[in-house]
Design goal:
The complex is a heterodimer of chains A (477) and B (409). Chain A is α+β, with helices and mostly antiparallel strands. Chain A contains 16 helices and 20 strands. Helix content of chain A is 33%, strand content 20%. Chain A is globular and about 70 Å long. The longest helix of chain B is centred in the middle third of the chain and has 15 residues, at 250-264. Chains A and B meet through strand 9, helix 7, helix 8, helix 10 and helix 16 of A and strand 9, helix 8, helix 10 and helix 15 of B.
Chain lengths: 477, 409
């Protein structure tokens, strides 16, 4: 990158807000999808909306592509840098700007860590409901870009249902205020459109989020099963019975063993083939009633035992095991491919069985930890990326699982986004017209295609290869 | 029969005249595409509609400026109801009554609980971005649209989302379509998340001549553990009435009722079918009955001040959703008044409400009133993005409204 441009950018963000050293840039080569790597030309870490807008204007002036990044915990390659591009991180935008307990909302900078937001409003009896497994590290801005989920989204819904407003910096450096915490959008629902757009419409620098009252009573149950299939069937029956716990999560045997061997050990029974982690919230009598109605359904599917968290400490431990499961899998192999697909909740058993079989046939180690209540499964394949042949088998298994999900009426992603990982599969799910309409929306909001180029959309013809972005991830030349 | 309808008939599309306006009545996606391709080629101004119950406020200009109305009312098939998954997919022309009755067979409820469900189609409700009193518990309808199939002004068929309760694949264009008032596309089909039907329903009502006493009770109601289905304060010329509708099951529901009863001290407690009737009446309040109307949108903490201000206004009818921050203002005769009088009234409301932190949205008023007021009322920071989207999808301005999402310079 020309020194003159670097100087311009340094003048905006100061020496602490720009990284050019190759060693420092190493940390930004990939997000959680470590299969895809690309070193950025430089990393910008603006402190606020104004600095972000100034940086974006400079990048616009010089036609430089850029990739927005939160904490880099995404698992689909959404924050993988592009060749000759800049990475714009929100790591220094960490302020909670306003907390309004009466109207139950908070206005935060994009780099605020998910769990810190809940800690901040806990004293007012409120919490921020979306709780991705990476919530100890992931940022609200990243959650907005990916429309992140989490275990409790079964009850509360994904990120999009909790975003009231945004301040967006556009590709050209304009600042767009969509931040009045209003009942309905004035005009088109641009906030709803922006959430989940994977950093391709702009950078959200300030976010107004809805906060939720902490329920009076929370009951956490660990239901232990002798087999994975009936555990899945139990979930389908809980949904069909219209019961409303706040979270329904499954861990299979390999996942349990990995967790129990790690620092996240939660007391899961290692002899079990599967456990169901259930949470029920509400007033005490409602919680008791729901639990009473759930138990016969679980028993009908071969429940071995049910354990109840006796206090908040036990509850935290059970959830730490669940949320630490992906990290714990580092014990199985050095790398982890976390698939993220969705099926109708009536097809849960079939897709989990299929994923297990596909991996077994390819001699791959699969563990399952997933949001069963939403039909959102995460077959996790442990591998070693130094073994190219194994990598090929992993990718083949991932593709087959995605194809089968589509066949079952499912979708490619429940919460991780498309990014680089799934872009090639998009044309299996959507028609050329469907994709073309999405691309037209993108062109309206980023006509030069400089924001996170080469992501989400499959490359379908030469006309989509933009000369100024040649070689960007996902493109074939 | 107009020449246009005759031409459409040759494509196999039936139609009829509404007043002097030709209205196409396609029965399939292919027919909608055929109609729009013809309209696109001829540059006709099109207003999409269902049964037309919301046209008066969504697209009031249809009376004077549309060349062609396209109604999806004959596309009324329920495509897929999966009770085990809690999802419904239906064509845009299904009425809300039809859908409500259908999902009830599997133990589900649908949101929004709109007024006049038999005269409201799914497509119309979503295009209008309409909510009902059940929004208090369920949230706005845009949160529960899982996916849509639409036809663009040039006849292109496109899909967004899916039929799954959780799905982040591709852009959420269905969020853009919901509430776009038919200015971007025609909705053909939508998938919705459903809600379990509760076993028990109770409706509590307290009536008082003065507003202040009820507002004090609202403050306390907000601190309760229960989550009402609806929480509405209304005045139609007599005393103020505060409604709390509860749904639930068994002991927990009874505890909710006791808590609300303690705070509200209601004169009426209705249960079972009587509660359902009372809730239906509450839904019905959203039907304007042809009156001039506007919505004030604000934060819930500002509602008390706004209602106190409105209390002093003679002849004004008010419906406030207390947990949401929405107040509907209905003024008898305003829709019949001249454009000048309508503008005067709405401007007066705007000037009084804006300092209290509310945004005003006109409803049952003349098209010219909406258009003239648009610059003042729709001073949205993102109009440029909205216009860019309109220009991309509707380059011939066939679907464009003079007042929504704002007026162009």
């Amino acid at each position: 990158m020309q020194e003159q441009i670097v100087t311009q950018l340094r003048a905006i963000v100061g020496p602490e807000g720009i990284l050019t050293d190759s060693t420092a840039l190493l940390a930004y080569e990939s997000d959680g999808l470590t299969l895809k790597r690309q070193r950025p030309e430089l990393v910008l870490l603006p402190r606020d909306t104004n600095e972000t807008a100034q940086c974006m204007r400079v990048l616009h002036e010089h036609g430089i592509p850029l990739v927005p990044r939160g904490a880099g915990t995404g698992l689909s390659g959404g924050a993988t840098p592009v060749p000759n591009g800049v990475l714009v991180g929100t790591a220094r935008m960490r302020d909670v700007l306003e907390l309004n307990a009466e109207d139950r909302f908070a206005r935060v900078q994009a780099g605020v860590v998910n769990v810190d937001l809940t800690r901040c409003c806990d004293g007012d009896g409120l919490f921020y409901a979306p709780d991705p497994s990476s919530q100890m590290a992931c940022t609200i801005g990243g959650n907005v870009a990916e429309n992140s989920g989490g275990p409790h989204c079964f009850k509360y819904g994904s990120t999009t249902r909790h975003i009231l407003g945004l301040v967006i910096v556009t590709a050209t450096g304009e600042v767009l205020h969509l931040d009045e915490a209003d009942v309905d959008p004035a005009g088109f629902d641009l906030v709803g459109l922006f959430v989940g757009s994977e950093g391709m419409f702009g950078i959200a620098t300030e976010i107004t989020v809805q906060l939720t009252p902490i329920p009076p009573v929370t009951e956490t149950l660990l239901a232990i099963f002798k087999a994975l299939d009936p555990c899945c069937d139990a979930v389908s029956d809980l949904i069909a019975a219209r019961l409303e716990p706040s979270a329904i999560e499954i861990l299979d045997k390999l996942a349990i063993q990995a967790v129990e061997a790690s620092v996240f050990a939660a007391g899961y029974p290692q002899e079990a083939e599967a456990v169901l982690l259930l949470e029920v919230e509400g007033r005490e009598s409602a919680v008791e009633d729901t639990v009473e109605r759930m138990l016969p359904i679980l028993e009908a599917h071969g429940l071995l035992e049910v354990r109840r968290a006796r206090d908040a400490g036990e509850r935290r431990k059970l959830w730490a095991g669940r949320k630490g499961a992906f990290g714990a899998m580092g014990r199985i192999a050095p790398d982890l491919y976390v698939a993220d697909v969705v099926v109708p909740r009536t097809r849960l058993r079939e897709i989990v069985r299929y994923a297990t079989d596909v991996c077994s046939e390819r001699n791959l180690k699969i563990s399952n930890v997933f949001h069963a209540g939403d039909g959102n499964i995460h077959p996790n394949i442990s591998y070693d990326r130094r073994d190219e042949e194994e990598v090929a088998r992993v990718l083949e298994a991932g593709d087959l699982i995605m194809e089968t999900c589509i066949k079952y009426g499912g979708s490619l992603s429940g919460e991780h986004g498309v990014g680089l990982e799934k872009q090639a599969m998009m044309s299996r799910l959507f028609t050329p017209d469907d994709l073309s309409v999405m691309e037209r929306v993108r062109r309206c909001l980023d006509p030069d295609g400089r924001l996170n180029p080469g992501k989400m959309f499959p490359v379908r013809s030469c006309k989509e290869v933009r000369p100024q972005l040649a070689g960007s991830p996902g493109e074939s030349t | 029969m107009s020449a246009l309808l005759e031409a459409l008939a040759k494509d196999g599309v039936e139609g009829e005249l509404v007043g002097n306006k030709p209205m196409a009545l396609p029965t399939s996606e292919a027919q909608v595409q055929a109609v729009l391709k013809r309209a696109h080629a001829d540059g006709l101004r099109v207003v999409p509609m269902g049964l037309g119950s919301k046209l008066e406020w969504c697209r009031p200009e249809y009376i004077t400026s549309a060349d062609l109305l396209v109604s999806t009312r004959r596309m009324d098939k329920i495509i897929d109801y999966v009770p085990g998954d809690g999802t419904l997919t239906a064509q845009a022309g299904c009425t809300m009554t039809q859908l409500e009755e259908h999902v009830l067979t599997g133990g589900h409820r649908l949101t929004p609980a709109v007024a006049l469900p038999g005269r409201s189609t799914l497509g119309g409700v979503l295009a209008a971005g309409l909510s009902g009193p059940d929004r208090q518990k369920r949230g706005p309808v845009r949160h529960h649209v899982l996916g849509t199939r639409v036809v663009l002004p040039d006849g292109t068929l496109a899909r967004s989302g899916g039929r799954l309760v959780k799905n982040v694949t591709g852009y959420d264009l269905h969020r853009l379509h919901t509430g776009s008032r038919g200015t971007l596309c025609i909705l053909l089909e939508a998938s919705l998340r459903l809600f379990p039907r509760a076993d028990d329903h109770t409706h509590l009502i307290r009536e008082e001549a003065e507003l202040d006493g009820l507002l004090a009770r609202c403050v306390e109601l907000r601190t309760l553990e229960c989550e009402p289905l609806a929480w509405t304060l209304e005045n139609h010329g007599g005393p103020w009435r505060l409604h709390v509708a509860l749904e639930g099951r068994g002991r927990a529901h009874e505890e909710d009722v006791r808590d609300v009863e303690r705070v509200l001290a209601p004169q009426e407690i209705l249960r079972g079918p009587q509660a359902d009737e009372a809730f239906d009446a509450l839904r019905g309040l959203d039907a304007s009955g042809g009156w001039g109307e506007a919505r004030a949108l604000t934060r819930t903490s500002r509602l008390s001040a706004i209602l106190r201000m409105l209390e002093k206004e003679d002849g004004l009818h008010v419906v406030a959703q207390m947990g949401i921050g929405e107040v509907r203002l209905q003024s008898p005769g305003l829709n019949e008044a001249s454009t000048e009088r309508q503008i005067e009234q709405l401007e007066e409301w705007r000037q009084r409400l804006t300092p209290l932190g509310a945004r005003l949205e006109p409803r049952m008023v003349r098209a010219q009133t909406q258009e003239d007021l648009a610059p003042a009322l729709a001073a949205q920071p993102a109009l440029d993005w909205m216009f860019r989207l309109q220009d991309e999808f509707d380059p011939k301005a066939q679907f464009r409204s003079p007042s929504f999402p704002g007026r162009r310079a």
